[in-house]
Amino acid sequence: MKARWFRRFLLPVLAIAMVAASCGDDGGSTSTTPATTVAGPPQFAVGTTMATIQARGKMILGTKFDQPLFGLKNPTNNQVEGFDVEIGKIIARAIFGADGASKIDYQETTSKVREDAVKDGKVDIVVATYTINDARKQIIDFAGPYYVAGQDILVKKANTTITGVESLAGKKVCTVQGSTSLTNIQAKAPQADVSITFDKYSLCVEALKDGRVDAVTTDNIILLGFVNDDPTNLKLVNKPFTTEPYGIGVKKGDTAFRAFVNDTLEKAYADGSWKKAWDATAGKTGQAAPTPPPVNRYA
Amino acid sequence: MGSLFDNLDVFWAGLRTTAALTGLSFMLALLIGVVLAACRVSPVRPLRAAAMFYVETVRNMPLTVHMLLAFFGWPKLGFRYSPFVTAVIVLAYYTGAFVGETIRAGINTVGRGQVEAARSIGLGFGKQLRLVVLPQALRSVVAPLGSLLSALVRNSAVAYTIAVLDIMGRSDRLITTTAKPLEVLIGAALTYYVLTIPIAFGINAVDRRQRIIR
After folding, report:
1. Yes or no, beta carbons of A195 and B163 under 8 Å apart
2. Which CATH number characterizes residue A175's domain?
3. Using CA atoms, how far apart are residues B159 and B179, in angstroms rounded to an integer?
4. Measured between CB atoms, does A180 come within 8 Å of chain B?
5. How would you write the pLDDT of chain B (214 residues) with one tens digit per residue?
6. Contacts with A, B 146-185, CB within 8 Å
7. Are B30 and B90 in contact (CB under 8 A)?
């Protein structure tokens, strides 16, 4: 009697439990060791931030939830997606090993709160379209840059005459009235015709599609969003003429952690995972991955 | 108020554009309005219906929506006009609807006896309108038409949303370069007064001189 109960009831339950345990949420990581051995999680010196994060079991990542292509919370599955998120996953994998991407706790860090989030230890790192500048370096430190945003030019896919800011003389360029984009373009291309301006970029893009203007100019990540909406008709010239280096915010003075993040970035440049991160997110617009910027290990 | 006086040339340039915009639109609007009014009182039913449809469709949508729809919509249909030309056409057909209704009201004030007398001497509908009714009707609506002209000057400001460099368009850009929105907007307001106040006095004078006192 007892044996039959075991065979009929407990065994199936045990079988189901074993199958469930072997199904991780990290894309089916198996419980069997593959032929090419995957090393265990990396070891870090006691006391370093990396060791603290590893011991905690979760890396707290500050990122944007509202920036298309870089950090955007997808309302259908409640996941945050984007290039910044992928960079965060690369760092997490460097701390936890192959399943690092599942050990991230996402916190929304809007532009205004990024410094405080790092300073007060609310997050471990901030990867949130975060431009490196000296004012911010007074409060926190930056690893990277891992991407250089900058003002760029959007044209129709068929356009071959506009190849950069120097070729805008006499062309009609649209941007938003009152923006730094307008000031920059007037400084860098004084011969460009900026008589047609609107109060939002989407109207500029509409005017471009109607042939009223030859180009639209603003930060390349804003323009990428428009390329994403209409990749068959629009393209980015991809020659930014101002520089907004995006960095990874870390606590001020944590030189060991900053060096670790920089090392991780350089490895990602070399082994192709940085390019893979781009192709999976912003690269879906058809925009090829730019050359990764050299990290700045300032003293 | 330094920004205001330093940039008088900007306001002057804007004023010239607004005046051109208003003048051209109003002339077209008058033409449209006369045709519209004639259709509205014509004995031909389809014409009456078409005119009423036109007036109701145009009047019941905000001018700003007309302007933006035209600017971004017409190119999709193959008509791409410059911001200025688009603004003139939109202002003309918009104001034309109101002009049409005003003239129609004027036509209705012309005594029925006039029309009957005209018919009895053998004038057809077209000649009735042209030789008997309209000369009297138009004289009676000079004041309302004048106020429509003044409204057109003020409505023309909407054109700045489609990048026309009129008073508002130039003021908008001036605000960016001077960072003094209040001064610039006061300047814009005063520039509009330069146009609207003389129109008000002028229309009043013309009206008083030629008004038919019955």
Report:
1. yes
2. 3.40.190.10
3. 22
4. no
5. 777 888 899 999 999 999 999 999 999 999 999 999 999 999 899 999 999 999 999 999 999 999 999 999 999 999 999 999 999 999 999 999 999 999 999 999 888 898 899 999 999 888 988 899 988 888 889 999 999 999 999 999 999 999 999 999 999 888 878 878 889 999 999 999 999 999 999 998 988 888 766 6
6. 161, 163, 165, 172-173, 175-176
7. no
Q: How far is B32 from chain A (nearest CA, A)?
A: 28
SS3 state at B132: helix
- Answer yes or no: do A126 and A209 share one domain: no
A164 and A120 within one domain: no
Last residue of a domain, one of A196, A217, A236: A236
**One domain, residues A102 and A125:** yes
**A173, β-bridge pairs:** A215
Domain boundary among A236, A266, A294: A236
A203 and B165 in contact by Cβ < 8 A?
no
Of B75, B80, B176, the CB nearest to A177: B176
pTM to 2 decimals?
Answer: 0.69
Task: For chain B, count helices (H), then strands (E).
Answer: 11, 0
For residue A262, give its domain range. 49-149+244-285
Contacts of B76 in chain A (CB under 8 A): 210
Per-domain residue ranges of chain B: 2-210
Cα separation, A180 vs A166, whole angstroms: 18
Shortest Cα distance from A173 to chain B (angstroms)?
Answer: 13
Enumerate residues 6+ apart whose C-beta is below 8 A from A10. Answer: none
Q: Which superfamily is assigned to B2-210 in CATH?
A: MetI-like (1.10.3720.10)
Closest-approach residue (CA) in chain B for A196:
B163
